[in-house]
Design goal:
The structure is a single chain. Helix 5 runs parallel beside helix 9. By secondary structure, the protein is α/β, with parallel strands linked by helices. Strands 3-2-1-4-6-5-7 form a 7-stranded mixed sheet, sandwiched between helices. It has one domain: Spore Coat Polysaccharide Biosynthesis Protein SpsA, Chain A. It has 9 helices and 7 strands; from the N terminus they run βαβαβαβαβαβααβαα.
Length: about 240
């Protein structure tokens, strides 16, 4: 018979989507596992050595044979973690080194204390290093966009560091495979009247993460896609 968790944070699963993050993913996951033994990294069809780097950390490795996108990777990770009956708290965490493990520790501690289903990290309540002016402007615009489209009012609408309870994980069901997952996450919260709060976090943009590019223009494309999807659903 399953006796349940026996150590601190045994009921927590950290979900790390990964696409071509070979240079950094091992170090990122090793730091996470210093505090959280249960990590599932989803290699989303990487063409580099990401899978081998993940395997070297001792984390659970799930692989997509082809690149499906961040939303699909997150949903795969959530589905995997839900197979553990003792899993009660779920964390989404980027593989590129922008998020800080200390913030996860604080957020997990916080969600154990408060009566909310979801905690969303906010770099605008906390701090951010190395963000470009254009990126900051787009993220500020996204706040208004998400408030209008989802009805959820946040100070940081597209922050990937999120902590949530099993009850929300069970109804998440991300269908947007690409970066629209962040908007769909909020839509799901709105649909289910999910209780939530924000939490100040520190985000560090490095030369490595900035070199991956494409994210600013993708923010515009994602917004257009979300609007089209909502119009079609409203028909």
């Amino acid at each position: 018979m399953n006796s349940g968790p026996t150590h601190l944070n045994d009921d927590v699963w950290v979900i790390v989507p990964c696409y071509n993050e070979g240079p950094v993913v091992r170090g990122v996951i090793q730091r996470v596992r210093e505090h959280f033994p249960n990590v599932v990294a989803v290699d989303d069809g990487s063409r580099d050595n990401s899978a081998a780097e993940i395997a070297a950390t001792g984390a659970r490795l799930v692989q997509h044979p082809v690149n499906l996108g961040a939303g699909a990777a997150y949903q795969t990770g959530v589905d995997f973690a839900l197979r553990d009956p003792d899993a009660q708290i779920f964390v989404t965490f980027d593989a590129d080194g922008q998020h800080q493990v200390e913030d996860v520790v604080a957020m997990v501690h916080r969600i154990r204390e408060v009566d909310v289903e979801v905690l969303i990290g906010s770099r605008f309540l906390g701090s951010v290093d190395g963000m470009s002016t254009s990126r900051r402007a787009l993220l500020r615009a996204a706040i208004t966009f998400e408030r209008v489209t989802s009805g959820i009012s946040l100070t940081d609408a597209h922050q990937g560091l999120r902590v949530f309870r099993r009850s929300f994980a069970q109804i998440l069901d991300l269908t947007a495979h690409d970066m629209r997952w962040a908007s769909e996450f909020l839509t799901r919260m709105s649909e289910h009247q999910t209780t939530f709060a924000e939490f100040p976090v520190h985000v560090r943009y490095t030369d490595y993460s900035r070199s991956k590019g494409q994210r600013s223009i993708n923010s515009v494309n994602i917004g257009i896609d979300v609007l089209i999807d909502k119009v079609l659903r409203g028909r």
